[in-house]
């Protein structure tokens, strides 16, 4: 089975590094990172990841605007998106689901559980 590829889009370097280390170590996935919505869109077009973890609160273009641009682009439209967000009430989850996002993971997240949360949201197995 081919190794899953994940794109982590977050303006915080620390979050990118923790997510990358955890997803690569725990799940054996290949992880690319991007520091902005624009960079995330370019990397999504280039790398065609199996899923995108997308921060909601970012300067310039927030996660919602980034998601909308990904959805409007035929090259990235089918890539599943999971939000990374501190804003995670039930009403927010419903709104994100209605927009077409796969799910949302609360920040701060437990690094050791991140891969399991992503796998669960996407219906993936965690076997390396």
UniProtKB/TrEMBL annotation:
4-aspartylphosphate: residues bearing it: 55
The keyword Phosphoprotein is annotated on this UniProt entry: yes
GO BP, sorted A to Z: phosphorelay signal transduction system
Pfam annotation, one family: Response_reg
Keyword Phosphoprotein: yes
Keywords: Phosphoprotein
InterPro entries named in the record: Bact_response_regulator (IPR050595), CheY-like_superfamily (IPR011006), Sig_transdc_resp-reg_receiver (IPR001789)
Alphabetical list of SUPFAM superfamilies matching this protein: CheY-like (SSF52172)
Response regulatory domain sequence ranges: 5-122
Protein's name in the database: Response regulator receiver protein
Organism the protein comes from: Nostoc punctiforme (strain ATCC 29133 / PCC 73102)
């Amino acid at each position: 089975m081919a190794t899953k590829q994940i794109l982590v889009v977050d303006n915080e370097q620390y979050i990118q590094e923790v997510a990358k280390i955890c997803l690569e170590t725990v799940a054996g996935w290949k992880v690319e990172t991007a520091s902005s919505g624009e960079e995330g869109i370019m990397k999504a077009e280039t790398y065609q990841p199996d899923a995108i973890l997308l921060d909601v609160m970012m300067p310039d273009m927030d996660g919602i605007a980034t998601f909308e641009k990904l959805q409007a682009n035929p090259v990235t439209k089918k890539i599943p998106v999971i939000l990374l967000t501190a804003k995670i009430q039930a009403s927010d989850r419903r709104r994100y689901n209605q927009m077409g996002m796969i799910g949302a993971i609360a920040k701060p997240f437990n690094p050791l559980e991140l891969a399991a949360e992503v796998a669960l949201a996407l219906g993936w197995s965690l076997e390396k």
